Amino acid sequence: MLSYFFYLIIDNHLIRLLILIFSAIYLIIFCLFVSSSDDHFNSILSAIGSVIMLFLSLSFFVISMRPSEEPVNLFSPVFLIVIALLLYVASTLFLYIIANRLTAREMEQYWGINHVSNILTNL
């Protein structure tokens, strides 16, 4: 769903093609992992999704910060949404990468990072 959001707001044809390719690859990986996994949190899928969102957020900023006739509106809803997504992804990426290797006690200890990031993103 977020990929579609970026597809709508980014006008660069190369980035749009990459969005379609990344989405197809992610869906294939998702189908492979869902069919072979149990009910535990899958940190590999979360990390892949986070890397894709990080790439798309940074691509949006690079494209929107190019010199143009129209200045960038820093308080537009789209800009603020992308900033919130970037902060969430950046703060939880490494937590998602190591989540399958954490014990239950460590998961309770460190998962608060995810909760705080989620709350800040939704503000």
| Strand segment count | 0
Task: Give the DSSP E fraction (strand runs of 2 or more residues).
Answer: under 5%
Helical coverage, percent range: over 70%
The geometry reads as flat
Please state the average pLDDT score.
83
Order of helices and strands: HHHHHH
Main beta sheet strand tally, sense and closure: none
Specify Rg, calculated over alpha carbons.
Answer: 16 Å
Secondary-structure-derived class:
mainly alpha
Counting H and I runs of at least 4 residues, what is the number of helices? 6
The end-to-end span amounts to 20 Å
Low-pLDDT segments: none
Q: How would you classify the quaternary structure?
A: single chain
Verbal overview:
The structure is a single chain. The chain is mostly helical and 123 residues long. Helix content is 76%, strand content 0%. The mean pLDDT is 83.
Task: Describe, in short, the structure shown.
With 123 residues, this protein is mainly α.
Topology:
Blueprint: H1 2-9, H2 13-36, H3 43-64, H4 77-98, H5 104-110, H6 112-122
Helix pairs in contact: 1-2, 1-3, 2-3, 3-4, 4-6
What key phrases describe this protein's structure?
123 residues, mainly alpha, 76% helix
